[in-house]
């Protein structure tokens, strides 16, 4: 199994129960999660040796976040205990035509104030095979931008494969700043994951003569965007998830991938995911599945099918983490979507 490192913020998630609106709620359900932490849990569940790098305050809430990772066999020895607070996000889970809503309370969190000298990146990447980060981490603060680039430089110095999930978050930064920062960071990236909004808002790529409104109907637009990205950055693989949102409870889910060298393009099987239990973490579960497939040595088509199946399953699980096994994913990718009771 591969040794994989992810770095980012883990947060306390407070979500309204039973699809209630914030104004109705008298209590919140508690979970922990965050982009790179979610990927780490997925990969640990698949049996990989995973280390999560972050900064967490030295208090009982920080201890709970560490315990949430350890519960699922994610390595925590490189977590710095610093800063004054753990980031929080509030989730109002939508239903049918009512969209979900997220409110962040993460300003000046531990990871937002962390500095590179808190981490021994040479030790962290000494025997690592893969490093994954997202566009969320550099979006939280200027200090986090410097921290992310320091980690990327160390990863490349050690010959580590690097993947990014672009993950544009308009509540954290502007498209203009995202493009300035992330375009620079792409020099370190081998595998780029995102969707058409990420490609435009984070890197400034738009399809030529094709209006990308549906992954299923406008695949030519993705081919165009992927070619532009491969030309500019030389990515080994470019990948996009394709979500067709019929409602908050009913989505079509598939993905596409391009080999940056040969320009071979592949579109996966599509799943109809309904009713959705929790779509938060769906993209992270996709990234985790893709990294697992590629790290296992699967070809790009098999890796993509594993990732799409893994993410489809995540939509049925409450909380940020995808808690399915390899066997669960392989069964669905192999065609068993019946949902019959396993006895």
TrEMBL record:
InterPro entries: Carb_kinase_PfkB-like, PfkB_dom, Ribokinase-like. Signal peptide: none annotated. Keywords: Kinase, Transferase. Pfam families: PfkB. Coiled coil: none annotated. Its EC number is 2.7.1.45. The keyword Nucleus does not apply. GO terms for molecular function: 2-dehydro-3-deoxygluconokinase activity. Belongs to the carbohydrate kinase PfkB family. This is 2-dehydro-3-deoxygluconokinase. It comes from Enterocloster citroniae. The lineage of its organism: Bacteria, Bacillati, Bacillota, Clostridia, Lachnospirales.
């Amino acid at each position: 199994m591969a040794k994989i490192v992810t770095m980012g913020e883990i947060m306390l998630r407070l979500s309204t129960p039973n699809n209630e609106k914030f104004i109705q709620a008298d209590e919140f359900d508690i979970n922990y999660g965050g982009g790179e932490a979610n990927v780490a849990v997925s990969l640990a569940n698949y049996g990989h040796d995973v280390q999560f790098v972050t900064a967490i305050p030295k208090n009982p809430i920080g201890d709970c976040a560490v315990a949430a990772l350890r519960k699922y066999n994610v390595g925590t020895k490189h977590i710095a205990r610093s800063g004054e607070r753990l980031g929080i996000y509030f989730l109002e889970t939508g239903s049918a035509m009512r969209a979900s809503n997220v409110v962040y309370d993460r300003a000046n969190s531990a990871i937002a104030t962390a500095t590179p000298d808190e981490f021994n990146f040479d030790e962290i990447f000494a025997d690592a095979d893969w490093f994954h980060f997202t566009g969320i981490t550099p979006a939280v603060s200027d200090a986090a931008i410097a921290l992310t680039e320091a980690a990327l430089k160390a990863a490349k110095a050690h010959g580590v494969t690097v993947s990014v999930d672009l993950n544009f978050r308009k509540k954290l930064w502007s498209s203009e700043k995202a493009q300035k920062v992330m375009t620079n960071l792409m020099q370190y990236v081998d595998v780029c994951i995102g969707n058409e909004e990420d490609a435009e808002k984070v890197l400034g790529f738009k399809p030529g003569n094709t209006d990308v409104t549906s992954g299923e109907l406008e695949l030519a637009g993705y081919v165009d965007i992927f070619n532009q990205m491969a030309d500019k950055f030389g990515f080994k693989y470019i990948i996009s998830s394709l979500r067709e949102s019929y409602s908050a409870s009913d989505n079509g889910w598939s993905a596409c991938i391009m080999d940056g060298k040969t320009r071979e393009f592949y579109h996966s099987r599509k799943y109809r995911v309904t009713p959705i239990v929790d779509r938060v973490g769906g993209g992270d579960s996709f990234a985790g599945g893709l990294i697992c497939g590629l790290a296992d040595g699967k070809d790009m088509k098999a890796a993509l099918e594993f990732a799409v199946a893994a993410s489809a399953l995540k939509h049925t699980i409450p909380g940020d983490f995808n808690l399915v096994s390899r066997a669960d994913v392989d069964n669905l990718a192999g065609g068993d979507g019946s949902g019959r009771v396993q006895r």
